[in-house]
Amino acid sequence: MNRIFNDPDLMVEDAVRGYLKAHQDLVSETTNPRVIKVKSAPKAGKVGVVTGGGSGHEPAFLGYVGEDMVDAVAIGEIFSSPTAQAFLDAFKASNGGAGVACLYGNYAGDNMNVKMAIKMAAKEGITVKTVVANDDVASAPKDELAKRRGVAGEILMWKVGAARAAEGGSLDEVIAAAQKAIDNTRSIGIGLSPCTIVAVGHPNFQIKDGEMEVGIGHHGEPGVSVMKTKPAAEMADMMLDYVLPDLPFAAGDKVAVLLSGLGATPIMELYILYDRIAEMLGQKKIEIKHNFVGNYFTSLEMMGATLTVMRLDDELDRLLARPARSIGLVK
Amino acid sequence: MNLPVSQAGFLVTDLVKAIVAERDHLSEIDGAIGDGDHGVNMAKGFNLCAQALGTPTPGLKESLGILGNTLMAGIGGSMGPLYGTFFNEMADSLDGVAELDAPAFGRMIRAGLDGVLDIGGAKPGDKTLLDTLVPAVEAFEAALSAGKPYRAALDDMVDAARKGRDSTVAMIAKVGRASRLGERSRGVMDAGSASCCIILETLAASVATKLD
How many CB atoms lie within 10 A of CB A205? Predict the structure, then answer.
């Protein structure tokens, strides 16, 4: 392990402090050190958009706080859900009186903490509704959608929900848009090397040199198969073969494509993958209307990539296209 | 026996000592199929509780409430809400209770269990702390129904907790992060069931020091 840190137990605190210093033009701290918000929040009459999750996925989750993006974020320990209190404080920081949309990923800890935070918020008169992302096709079979985890598709869900809120949509309209976004989104990851939580000191799973794990989760959850590492074009084809039939996507569809590195992946290699993905979608007569290539949702220093594809209708297309500014995503 | 609820805050300080002492052991168990931070997070939460308790230690109801709230606000993840709810519900069950006699102890752990069942959505057999907690609570209640004395009921509870904990080795994880491992989660103890067993063992041992 050769990493950059002071106290391994205080890495989240140290990183959040640095983040606030780096981006003070856009975001600000709150009374809870594990909650940050866009400076302009709360906006009177606007639905607040909140997310939250474990650290180690930067720029997720805090990097998607911004103008016409997520209003406030709850920040957890590395790979561990934020507390119910943090979610509650994020609700409060974003609440402009029109209710709060909490858009987060399907993990046991997040589900519990959000559920408790919603009860606490209700006592304070804040209405919160949720959309739970479940875009990872490798995490459960298609007939068990409710068991699937949320991965990088969450970013597109946040963008859509936040844009609908920025348009002046009601809480129900924001929730409906975000739900439609995730319902039309599918993702898959490929991991080529494991990652290490510094406080633990060693990788909590293994990927052998020269092998890749198809369907790996954002915390190293095992995927659907382990095999010899393939050339980039075959990797891209394999990812599309998991993602496209699952929705299914079809000729004539308009889509958004998000290709994220997992932390250690050279950006150059993401473009090598994207080259093939764009070519294959073109051959299948699937039109890419929006694309995002870069480090959008990482897993510490894991090597690998996740592919996310979202089918668009006019509303999703319009909401994705709406200008927004956050550190993780600018449109 | 003489165990006034107002004088039983030591049960919570004993729990803090036990969990902090088992920090590395719990993390090691978790490392096999989790991310290896269960002991780190639990010890962090229980240490925060020790600071919040102050001296002298408040009564049991207040101390359990402080423990529940510090875990809830301090550690997040799945364990924050699960154990936070567990201890908060135990605290609430002591409303107006003067003596921690056997029926009060039984109602206390039952309330804790019901809280965990409500928030967690898991069931016995899913390879979670419920595999320790459910049989332990049931064994204590069965012992009381059978007319056994308090100490024997505590012994039955601990036996059931240990058997329950050990039963998770053969199980496949059905909820939480380890559930992604499927068959690969078999053969390893669940870390939550191990920490839950430590908690029940410690509660029983602490209460037993006050029994005749």
Answer: 18
Percent helix, strand, coil in chain A, to 5, is 35, 25, 40
CATH 1.10.10.10 correct for B5-208: no
For the question of an ipTM over 0.85, the answer is no
- Give the catalytic positions of A in this structure: 57, 219
Q: Nearest chain A Cα to B31, which residue?
A: A204
Mutation target among A10, A83, A226 for the B interface, most CBs of B within 10 A: A83
Q: Do A77 and B34 touch (CB under 8 A)?
A: no
Pull the structure tokens for residue B134: 């459910």
Q: Among residues 150-189 of chain A, which lie with CB inside 8 Å of chain B?
A: none
> Model's pTM, two decimal places?
0.89
Tokens encoding B207: 């209460």
Widest Cα–Cα separation across chain A: 55
Domain ranges in chain B? 5-208
Reading the block at residue A29, the tokens are 């701290």
**Predicted confidence (pLDDT) per residue in A206-224, tens digit:** 899 999 999 998 888 778 8
Shortest CA gap A51–chain B (Å): 15
CATH 3.40.50.10440 in chain A, residue ranges: 9-183
**CATH architecture, range A9-183:** 3-Layer(aba) Sandwich (3.40)
